[in-house]
Amino acid sequence: MAHNWDDLRLFLAVARERTLSSAGKLVRLDPATLGRRVARLEKQLDAVLFVKSPQGYALTEAGEQLFRRAEAADRAMRLAMAEVVPPSDMLTGQIRIGAPDGAANFLLPQICAGLAADHPGLDIQIVALPRVFNLSRREADMAIAVSAPEAGRLVVQKLSAYRLHLAAAESYLAGHPPIRSTDDLKSHRIVGYIADMIFDRELDYLADLGLTRVPLASNSVSVQGQIIRQGGGVGIVHDFALPFLPGVRPVLAHDIHLERAFYLIRHADDRGNQRLSQFADLLSAAIRRELRRLEAKA
């Protein structure tokens, strides 16, 4: 039986987002209208596709079967559209990037502004969240991560290593005892992550220094940077963020220096999507250039 592709597109959005409100934002429909469209599809199919639970809309067995088929159709359509390459290699359409907030705040704004200027028909969305993105649910077209995932049908590309140092504001250092060794840190106020909200082991910087108490904490690295800038204490700062934090300088730079890496993650089904691949290449090169530029200024 043939069905309206638009109804299947709406079904996919609800299945991936699990709530009408979140799915409605993606497809630009209010939740009530979206709910009616899903109910209409269920009536057409004579099947219950969702069961409402405390966590949102859960797929039934019939819903799971339709989800697999609709996803296959969605992939086929994405690939077909990708084969139509715009003239002069100009990118168009919408691309959503998921990123940890350090990259989203200090790297992606200027990079994406440049890409948008070069490709006027391109709509770039940056989703900054302190967690791992689920590309299988199409939360984003691609994501930047601080560690390479080991599971899932994903394509993983290492972008670049980056450096981090302990840092503090000149105003804080002027009013507190000197820091000559790591032992001195025990008498200073520490700024860092909220321990139970660290979503990736690579972000657990302070544990390696034996610093277990964090009097000033946030799940956002940009908030941590602003706390440090305001003289709140001492914390780990990305070298590429230092140019955005005037008055903040590295502390114990020769004794404490960390290195991490950014990875670009894409869904394996998008491997043949020329448009996304072209954008990924441009984004990767721009991130490497911007990291070099900012770290040279740190």
Automatic annotation (TrEMBL):
<keyword id="KW-0805">Transcription regulation</keyword>
<keyword id="KW-0238">DNA-binding</keyword>
<dbReference type="InterPro" id="IPR036390">
    <property type="entry name" value="WH_DNA-bd_sf"/>
</dbReference>
<dbReference type="InterPro" id="IPR050176">
    <property type="entry name" value="LTTR"/>
</dbReference>
<dbReference type="InterPro" id="IPR036388">
    <property type="entry name" value="WH-like_DNA-bd_sf"/>
</dbReference>
<feature type="domain" description="HTH lysR-type">
    <location>
        <begin position="3"/>
        <end position="60"/>
    </location>
</feature>
<dbReference type="InterPro" id="IPR005119">
    <property type="entry name" value="LysR_subst-bd"/>
</dbReference>
<dbReference type="InterPro" id="IPR000847">
    <property type="entry name" value="LysR_HTH_N"/>
</dbReference>
<dbReference type="Pfam" id="PF00126">
    <property type="entry name" value="HTH_1"/>
</dbReference>
<comment type="similarity">
    <text>Belongs to the LysR transcriptional regulatory family.</text>
</comment>
<keyword id="KW-0804">Transcription</keyword>
<dbReference type="Pfam" id="PF03466">
    <property type="entry name" value="LysR_substrate"/>
</dbReference>
<dbReference type="GO" id="GO:0003677">
    <property type="term" value="F:DNA binding"/>
</dbReference>
<dbReference type="GO" id="GO:0003700">
    <property type="term" value="F:DNA-binding transcription factor activity"/>
</dbReference>
<protein>
    <submittedName>
        <fullName>DNA-binding transcriptional LysR family regulator</fullName>
    </submittedName>
</protein>
